[in-house]
Amino acid sequence: MYEEFVVKQRIRRFGMAPGDVGGLPASYGWVEREQTGVAEYRVRRLEPVGCELPASGLERFVFAEKR
How many whole angstroms separate alpha carbon 35 and alpha carbon 24? Predict the structure, then answer.
């Protein structure tokens, strides 16, 4: 996977553990409210509006609000 996403396609720039995500938006004045994986995000957010978006199983989606 590293070869494909980092070396060939140059898609992935950095990564972090899901439990460490809250610190990144917090440093910009945001607070994490929800975090989901691809499968849950697809079912809860994309399918209800008829959107078919390809995503890697490595991706996480974070909902944050401005403080």
Answer: 13
Q: Which two tokens stand for residue 30?
A: 């945001």
d(CA 34, CA 42): 14
Q: Can you name the residues that pair with 36 across neighbouring β-strands? A: 61
Q: In angstroms, rounded to a whole number, what is the distance separating the alpha carbons of residues 58 and 12?
A: 10
Q: Taking the C-alpha atoms of 27, 29, 35 and 38 in order, what is their torsion angle to the nearest 10 degrees?
A: -80
User: In whole angstroms, what separates CA 25 from the centre of its chain?
Assistant: 12
pTM of this structure: 0.62
User: How far is the CA of 62 from the CAs of 13, 34, 40, 65, in angstroms?
Assistant: 17, 6, 12, 10
At residue 32, the pLDDT reads 93
